[in-house]
Each structure stands twice: as C-alpha cells, then as structure tokens.
Specification:
Blueprint (H helix, E strand, L loop, with lengths): L6 E4 L8 E6 L12 H8 L8 E6 L3 E4 L5 E4 L16 H20 L8 E6 L1 H12 L6 E5 L6 H7 L11 E6 L7 H14 L4 E6 L8 H15 L2
Parallel strand pairs: 2-3, 2-6, 6-7, 7-8, 8-9
Antiparallel strand pairs: 1-3, 4-5
Family: Belongs to the AB hydrolase superfamily. AB hydrolase 2 family.
Keywords: Fatty acid metabolism, Hydrolase, Lipid metabolism, Serine esterase
Protein name: Acyl-protein thioesterase 1
Length: 234
Amino acid sequence: MSSLVSAIKIPATSKPAKSAIIFVHGLGDSGEGWSWFPQLVRQLGIIKSRDSINYVFPNAPSMPITANGGYVMPAWFDIFAFGSSDSPQDIPGFLKSCEVLKSLIKEQIEVNNVPPEKIILGGFSQGAAISLATLSSLDFKIGGVVALSGFCNIPETVKKNHNKDGVNFETPVFQGHGTEDPLVALSFAQKASELYKGLGFSKYTFKTYAGMAHSSNEAELNDVMNFISKVIDS
C-alpha cells in the first residue's frame, strides 16, 4: 500500500482552508460512499466555519477477505472471522493503514497549511478502528476523532504502540454505535471505548443509538456535527 492512497478530495469553498476532515470508509465501500458528507454539513448549518473545510475521503485498496471466502473487495485490513476478537488478526495490514492516515494528516498540514488542531480524523467500521488507533500513536496533537460503528481488534498492539507522552490524551473523541448492530456487536464497541479511556484519553464520549444497525442515523449525524463544530469553530 502506498503512503498516499487515492482519495476523493473536496476543497474548501472559502480559501485558504482553515480546517480539514479526513473520513475513512468501511469494508467493501469507497471514499465516494461518504462523499455526501459536505452536502449534509451545508444543509444542517451547525458548523459555522463550514465553507473553509477541506474534505478527504480516502479509498482503501482491494484485497481478498478471508472471512468472505477470499472475495476481493476494498478493505483497510483483512478480516479472518466476523464478530470475533479471538481469531487471528491482520496486524501488519492494520498498521499499514494507520500509516496511510498519518500521511493524509501530514499532507493537510504540510501542503495545505491546515493547523493540526483543526484536523478531524474520522471513520466508519474499519475506518473507525484505524482512526482511533492512529490517534493513539500520533506524536503531534490533532483536533479530534469521530468513530462510528467502530471497534478495536488488536488491543494488545494498540497498547504497545500508543504514544506514552499523551500528546492527544485531551483530544476529544466521539464514538457512536447502534444497539442493534449485527456486524460489530455493541460489546465489541464498548471494549474499544474502555481500552482508549484506559490508555488515558480523557475527553472520550461513547454514545449508543437505540435500534440502529451497522449504519448511521439522523440523531448520530447531528451529534457528529455538534462535535465537529466544538473542535473547528472554537
């Protein structure tokens, strides 16, 4: 996997960009699957500085997924068994994708001159998993992380790799999850939140949505908009 994957990039309509949102899709999806997000930001109008946001929606490479009988699909890492933390895990693939996210963050800082504390990293499912792990290993502070329908399948590796200096321990994190998620059990999501809180992330919000499956809904997206506003409008 190259350091910079292909991505759908939607530049700020008001230049120069003052903030950036990097949002990472889940298994079998693409950057295009979340490219409606800027339109929702405009429609809801919650984020005041919405015109000066750069958006990046990276595309995962395609790879055979073991749990799907080797079927090739876009993925940030292989999955050996769905809904299991006891099965083998694709640690090298997972960590490689974390490096991709770091390079996308650095691109916003170094190429687009976006202040790191105004960069929000986010993702859905696999994208949420690598976003959280990336935050924990960064050696510089960013604005925040949004993790939707996420999990942590490599807790021991995350514990070993996290930045002990705590540069992001006060970086706000929003994790949302549906109570009826059939693919990523609520208990799996709760374990992820406990892991990161236990590492020292003190501004960590974990919120559940009654009846929601492996998806997002209006209530969750409103909460996400309010979270983003607190980070980039301040």
